[in-house]
Every structure is written in structure tokens, then in C-alpha cells.
Amino acid sequence: MEAQYQGDNVLILADDFTGANDAAVNFALNGAQAMVMFHPENVPQAQVVAVNTDSRALAANQAEQAIKAAINTVGLPGHSHWLVKKIDSTLRGNPGAEVSAALQASGLAGAVVALASPGLGRTTTNGQCLVKGIPVNQTEFASDPKTPVTDADIIHVLQQQAERVCYLADLACVRQGNLAATLQACFARGVEVVVVDSETAPDLTRVIEAVASLPVRPLLAGSAGICEALAQYLFPLAATSPLLPHSSGPLLAVVGSMSEIAQQQMQAVMQHPLVTHMALSAEQALSADSESYLHECVQAAVAALNSGRHCVISTTEHHDARHQVARLCQRYQLNRAQLGEKLCLFLGRLTQAILSDATPGGMYLSGGDVAIAVARVLGAQGFTIHGRIAECVPWGEFTGSQYLRPVMTKAGGFGNTDTLLEVVHFFEEKTK
Predict the structure, then answer these.
(1) Could you tell me if residue 313 is inside a domain?
(2) d(CA 338, CA 144)
(3) What are phi and psi of 314, to 5 degrees?
(4) What CATH code is carried by the domain that includes residue 107?
(5) What is the pTM of this model?
(6) Contact 55/87 with Cβ under 8 angstroms?
(7) What region holds the Four-carbon acid sugar kinase nucleotide binding domain (predicted)?
């Protein structure tokens, strides 16, 4: 297939919607045109395109096929392109299978994996994935409702999913200035994947500079941190992030994440005097009488929004809801992925029904599965990124959807306790 891109364009393959936004927003902030697309066949010409393969919760072989299909459909950029496989900073999903598939489909000889995202507390030391200094398999991500993480060793995780020859470039290698030579020597002797330690933003800058200096550019893999470093390298003159356009009406927030930080954010935003919080019952959403429950929820949300109140909908009634997933799976004879899909479908349909009877000034979607479920029911083909409100909250607009007001997204496990409350305050200030 003829390449659709030329020059230093960037093609990003992400396994979920919010992850695609988190990767691409860094380029938008530095003045590049950045778009997220949900279907590879609809990819436009742009400086930076992130394709959401929606493959995080798939079986490894299905995730491989999704990556190969995306590359084969989109085609690769021109000679000086950058192909980036965005992977989750906490190793959820199928990082090994997807990196391997990207190598195979692209024909590239090797990959450089730099997983760290220091600004969000994700670092890598001695090949270990750490969250605020703690091995990821000792954090809440070990009990993730859909894709629990059981191993913090990056190479182990990659090799469990794909038999590739791996090598670890430690911090000393990164900081002593010989990373480029190490990468070139590794690829020359048959190493296929080089995992690179990084603890700081300057470490990631060194990784990008080393990769850029190689005679043949490898596949670049990592989280939002490496995308930020690449954006600053390619587009060094940062542009001013566009402000939210004036849009009257309160905020509709749909929080699908069951992460601990998402629950803390819910508790904080409930202190706002103009916030109505609706905690959904997973039991009722999955029950035979779910249609009646959906109607009941729609009425409550519409009443709140039409009275000028922000409406925040969450999927959890209790703080320990994430630990009840196994019980729900057993009761309804579903696996984790199927359970998540049913709950997200309910939230998508709920959001669609609310928007039929109310017009919020903007939407906030937390959790990649929920965000893409809402996008689908609203007929969106993609997402044009305009900027970022908080450290981990990109904003933009759906493309191909009748809903044209601002949309904000956040990956479930990101942010601090006050992130959602900050978004509400920002939204109120900018839409007066």
C-alpha cells in the first residue's frame, strides 16, 4: 500500500481510546495537528494520527491481529516516519503481543521500549515497572477488573506474550551517552526488543535522541511519557493550547473506572455544591430488568442537568466494588472482559438517552472502555484533540458525531484526588 504520510509524521497505535488521547495530546500541545481515529480505514492525512485498536482486553492472538490489520489498512508513513506502539504504563493488556505484531507487520527489525511516564509517577528501574516507586504488581493494578497485572518485570511480560530476543539497557547506559551505540549493536546481533530504563523526563529525551540518530529507525514503544519526549523533539516550539469554546450548560461526567484514584476523585467532587452524583448498581444494570433501571437513571440525570446541576455518573456504589468483579462474573456466567463490555454498553446507552433529553455544555469520560462505548453510540469516527485541561485530561471534539460540544477524557488510574473537581471548576470558569 502506498504510504499516506510523508516527512516526520507520526503514526501511533494505541490499545484504548484514553491512551490514544494521552499519547497524541502531547503533539497537539506543541502545535501539531493531532487526531485519534477509531477505524483504520478512516485515517486522514495529519501530522500525528493515533489509531485506537481497542485491543487491551482482547486475547493476545486477537490483539496481534488488530495491530496487523491496522498497519496493513493504514499503510506506513514515508521514509522519515515515526511508528509508535503506545502501551499502558502499568503493563495492562497485551504489550508483548502487540509490539511483536507491530514489528512483523511493519517489517522493522527491532523495537525500543521505554515504558516510563515520570510525570505520572511511572518509572522503570532495572527493567521493573514501578508506580510511585512500587512494583506495579504490588499496587491496585494487580486487581484491575479487566486486565490484572501479575508481573512487574517488563521483559518477562513481553516474552510471556511473544518469543522475541530482548535486552535491557539500564540507567547507566542511558545517562552515559552510549545508548545509540548500544541500540545499534543490539540490533546488529539479532536483538529484537531493547527495553530502556527511564526515571526522569531527561532520560526519555536521551532515548528519543538516540533512536533518532540510528541509520534505520526502529519501532518506538512506550506510554505517554515517550510520546511527550518525541513531541518536544519533533515540534520544539510549543503552541498555546486553545481554550474551551463558550458552551452553556452544566457538565456531564461518566466515570467507568473502578480504580482507587477514580474513587477518591469521586469523593472529592461530591463536595461541590452543584454536583449531583449518581452511583449506578452493576447488579441492576446487568439484571433482566435493566431497561427499567436505565429509564430510571435517565430521568434522574436529565432532571439534574436541566436544573443546571453538574451530573456525575459512576459505576460503583461502594469503595470495594472492584473486588466484587469475580462474584459478578460468577453470578452472570461472564468472564471479566464480557462483564466490562456489558457495563460499558449500559453506560453508553445511558449517555445517549440522556443527551436526547438534555444538552450538557460538555462531557467528561473517565476510563478507556467507557469513553469508546460512548463514542460509538454517538456515532463518532474519531477525536480531534485541541489541548489539555489538567495534567492527564485531554480535551477535544468528536468527529462524525452529532454531539459537537467539548469532550474531556481521562485514563482511569491517572490524576490526583482533586482532578475531577479541578475539571468542574475549570469548566465553570471557561464556559461562563
Answers:
(1) yes
(2) 14
(3) -125, 160
(4) 3.40.50.10840
(5) 0.90
(6) no
(7) 252-420
